[in-house]
Each structure stands twice: as C-alpha cells, then as structure tokens.
Amino acid sequence: MIISYEPIIEEPILTIGSTNYQGRLLLQLLRHDIACYATGSSFDKCKGGSADWLASRLELSGVYITEPQASYAGMEDTVCQSGKGRIGYYKKKKSLEELTDMICNLFSLEGINAYISKRDDGLTFSDVAVVVWADEKSIEAAMERGVQLIVTCGVSSKEAMKACSEHRAVLELPCETAAHIFETCVEQYLSEVLSSSIEILTIPMQRKSRFLKCRKE
Predict the structure, then answer these.
(1) What value does the mean pLDDT of the chain take?
(2) Which letter, b or e, does each residue of 69-80 get, where b requires 16 or more Cβ atoms within 10 Å of its Cβ?
(3) 120-171 residue pLDDT tens
(4) For 157-177, what is each residue's pLDDT tens digit?
C-alpha cells in the first residue's frame, strides 16, 4: 500500500491506458497489486493533521479551528471536527526574528519569505494563524479573528500584500515543508497503530523542477 498526499486521480476517468502518465502509473499499481490512498487537502483539515502538527511545533496555546467544516467519525467512533487553518496565541509576545529563527531551526531551513510592511517593523506577535495553503478566504477569516501573523506553506503575493496593508505579517515556508509535515505525521501514526512486524518506508517527495544557475556576462 502507498499512502500519499497528492492524488493520482483528481477527476473522474472513463478508461485506463498507457497513452499518458496517469494511465501508465495506474496500470503499474494494478499489475503489482498495490493499493494507493491519497489524503489530499483533507489531511490539512483533519484532527492531528498538518495544521495541528505545525501549530503544536510552533508551541501555540489555545489552538482552535479557523474555518470549521463538517465533523467526521474518528478512531473508536469519536466525533472529530475538521476545518481549514488553526489559530493560537503566545502568552509572551514574540518578534518576527524570534519566530523566523524558531521555524528555520525546526525545519533546518536557511530562510523563509516574510511579508510585512516597513511601517510595522518591530511589531511583536501574540495571535498567530497556521494555514498550510493560504487563499483569500482563509486569510480574511484569520484577520477577522484578530490574528496578527499568518504562517503558511503557500500564498500568492497578492494575498500576502493584502494582509500587509491591514497591518498583518505573513511568513511563508517552502512548499516542500508541507510534504515533510505529511511524511512525519503519517509515519508516526502508522508506527503507533500497526504491528511492529510491518515495515514502514518513508520516501521523501522528489522535486519536480531543478534550479539553474545563471551568469551575467
């Protein structure tokens, strides 16, 4: 069985053939009797998923769901609330530099993108939102709840600048961080619920592009 974040099938298909990449991949799975389960964005919204994991690693207190959605049946028939984004707070305010250092150390990053207006330099933050993939709706929902800082793995420059105009700051982690969170959470969960005789292999996401160095003459 393969558990992945990105789904192989995003839209309904009528036939499976070898004329395209998707068909060839599905045929390989079928021929080798391999099941494939993809979580997609549901993993970002569920209890204990990527948003909860990131909020806990940032040591936020009083965490709650930014955009509550439908509840679902969890382990042992417990009712769990799903939803996009999490909001929490720091009892002692932190500066942008402190939060940046914390995140870089957590994920071994050399740096992250920070969107903040020059007039807001020196601000400290207590209320923080975590949105794995931030869009217009999620950013507006966070700002409506008084959030001062939004931490995300993906945001458009347009939405980030809109937040800055409202005296908010946005920290954008590399998109590969979302994959790292997924791999870490799933591996930890499987190791807890599966027999020790079952081998769990974690394969890091392969970058689909590569960087080229450019030289000016």
Answers:
(1) 89
(2) eeeeeeeeeeee
(3) 888 899 999 999 999 999 999 999 999 999 999 999 999 999 999 999 999 9
(4) 999 999 999 999 999 999 888
Q: Which helix (H) or strand (E) holds 140?
A: helix 136-144
CA distance 173 to 153: 5
For residues 50 and 184, give the distance between their C-alpha atoms in angstroms, rounded to a whole number. 9
- CA angle, residues 49, 106, 200, in degrees to nearest 5: 50
Strand 2-4 to 36-38 pairing: parallel
Cβ contact 151:113 at 8 Å: no
Residue 116 token pair: 């903040």
As a whole number of angstroms, the distance between CA 143 and CA 40 comes to 25
Which of these, 21, 86, 20, lies nearest to 52 by C-alpha position? 86
Closest-CA residue to 111 (of 99, 94, 126, 120) = 99
Q: Write down the pTM of the prediction.
A: 0.85
Q: Can you give the three-state secondary structure of 52-115, one letter per residue?
A: HHHHHHCCCEEEEEEEEEEEEECHHHCEEEEEEEEEEEEEEEEEHHHHHHHHHHHHCCCCCEEE
Alpha-carbon gap, residue 148 to 116, rounded angstroms: 11
